[in-house]
Amino acid sequence: MSAGSSQLRQNQPEWLPPMLATLTEPRALPEGWVYEPKLDGWRCLAFVRDGEVKLFSRNRKPLNESYPGIAEALASRARGDMVLDGEIIAMDGERGVSSFSLLQRRMQSSSVQLWLFDCLFYEGRDLTRLPLGDRKALLKDVVQFGGPIKFTPALNGSFAALYRDACRRGGEGLIAKRAGSRYTAGRSGDWVKLKCVNTQELVIGGWTEPQGSRTGLGALLVGHYDGDGTLHYAGKVGTGFDQRTLEDLARRLGRIERQRSPFGAGVVPTRGSLHWVAPTLIAQIGFAEWTPDGMLRHPRFPGLRDDKAPREVVRERRATAVVTSRRTRSVR
Predict the structure, then answer these.
(1) What pLDDT digit, counting tens, does each position of 177-208 carry?
(2) Is the pTM of the predicted complex or chain greater than 0.85?
(3) How are beta strands 186-195 and 19-23 bridged, if at all?
(4) Are 205 and 221 in contact (CB under 8 A)?
(5) Which domains does the chain have, with CATH numbers?
(6) Catalytic residue chosen out of the listed positions 38, 136, 177, 236
(7) For the residues 83-92, what does the mean pLDDT come to?
(8) How far is 88 from 42, CA to CA, in rounded Å?
(9) Residue 183 CB contacts under 8 Å (≥ 6 apart), including other chains
(10) What is the pLDDT of residues 26-70, one digit of tens each?
(11) CA-CA 20 to 30 A from 171: which of 41, 49, 228, 322?
């Protein structure tokens, strides 16, 4: 389907829920899948209409005020009305990979970029039922890429070589997508995450007092929600902070402190200088592995997230299988 194909025109939607990838074990996928770099930033859906750009996070939080330069650049480079999907990132120039911790520090910096990877709607035409390959081809036609607006390419090479290179450079890993897949809202087995490192969004339920020369706080007490809505304790996170982050977290947590622990499951600490908070802040945590009793091993703190509701934070588990064949019809 080209930009000029005939199809009944529709009103451009005000919102489209994003398609989300499923975590699975890193491995080569069969013919018919393509690999893209796994970007470590803010998911961003861009709605362009009459020359005006509105940027939203995956939970529909407006992003224009945080990234005015991105909105301005896309407005000058989008050829028509459209809905696009991508990721706002900060690139680590030395390693050649995106970095969430850098993005936290460079929200208004010229080094922030928008990497687009899908086109969902164009000039009154719903593209979500088209195969991925057709949507990406149209994306290249309708956006003039350059400056902070980047095209996310399909990577050439074997899975082993691509995955090894991403991990060697300290990247997040790869995203694999079924080339013939439609764009569907929510979690899908047609897009899968092949991670180099373990990361997990976790809810902050408290903190410990700093020790020695450290100021601000000692460690974050974090957890995730279980299926019954109980906040499950998952461990202490005491590394990954710089001084500015420690001070900022101490201020934020002090405003939401409360008397009782929000955790209802897990081995919750009871000794030491513990402070509890209302479970409203979400941290992105990197870690080595989950222990058999559901605790984080060697966790570290890259930054806070606010593109998800706390009660949506559940433990992410790897899928044991990926569907390897599926017929996908294109729009006629």
Answers:
(1) 999 999 999 999 999 999 887 889 999 999 99
(2) no
(3) parallel
(4) yes
(5) 19-195 (3.30.470.30), 198-312 (2.40.50.140)
(6) 38
(7) 94
(8) 5
(9) 19, 85, 118, 120, 127, 128, 129, 132, 135
(10) 889 999 999 999 998 999 999 999 999 999 999 999 999 999 999
(11) 322
